[in-house]
Specification:
Blueprint: H1 2-26, H2 32-44, H3 50-79, H4 81-91, H5 95-108, H6 111-116, H7 127-132, H8 137-162, H9 166-194
Helix pairs in contact: 1-2, 1-3, 2-3, 2-8, 3-8
């Protein structure tokens, strides 16, 4: 896994960072912690510039998050119901889940977009109810850009600091990323198999 990401970074440079970060937010096969962390190591070795790395990472993150926002905005709150009713098992959600997260979004206001950019489990999916609630695009983009920029600074900075321990770190990053993906997949399969719709 580490070699794969390093190859993308070496071949694609900043465009590779944009593509990986966009994919990470649309369908997360590779954690942003790994992408930006290795990008930070590339900065420490003089192969990348920190400013361009942060710009590429933030652009990719905003693109990926905007895909979910646009889907939510297109289908709207009620427009999503037939989709959830039909594909709820594979999404492992039912309509009550959608209602709950939408209520939460409305109750907490736009600041939740910014805060959730620092939460690995929710920073992407929160874009969907933002779109369904028709949050103004400019507000969504400002909050998303601000949150992801700060998050990427933290990750890239960690990569720079840890570069001197790369040999030791490399032993764990690949297996950890693979183990994370396997765990997520296993949990998803478990959710699909055991999922039952709640009564209306």
């Amino acid at each position: 896994m580490t070699d794969f990401i390093l190859e993308w970074i070496a071949r694609g440079g900043y465009f590779g960072i944009v593509a990986l970060m966009a994919l990470e937010n649309i369908f997360p096969p590779i954690p942003s912690e790994v992408i930006m962390g290795l990008g930070g190591m590339a900065v420490a070795r003089g192969r990348m510039q920190l400013g361009w790395l942060l710009l590429a990472g933030t652009i990719g993150s905003v693109i990926g998050n905007y895909v979910w926002y646009a889907l939510g905005r297109k289908f709207g709150y009620q427009g999503l119901k037939p989709f959830v009713d039909r594909w709820g098992r594979w999404l492992t959600v039912d309509w009550q889940d959608v209602e709950a997260i939408t209520r939460f979004f409305h109750d907490r206001g736009g600041w939740v977009i910014f805060v959730f950019r620092f939460m690995p489990s929710f920073r992407t999916i929160i874009s969907l109810p933002a779109g369904m609630a028709h949050m103004p695009r400019w507000r969504f983009l400002v909050a998303t850009t601000a949150g992801t920029t700060i998050w990427n600074i933290i990750l890239a900075g960690a990569g720079i600091l840890l570069d001197q321990n790369f040999e030791q770190l490399d032993r764990y990053i690949g297996p950890l990323a693979i183990a994370t993906m396997v765990a997520v997949l296993a949990y998803y399969v478990y959710r699909v198999v055991t999922w039952k719709p709640r009564e209306e």
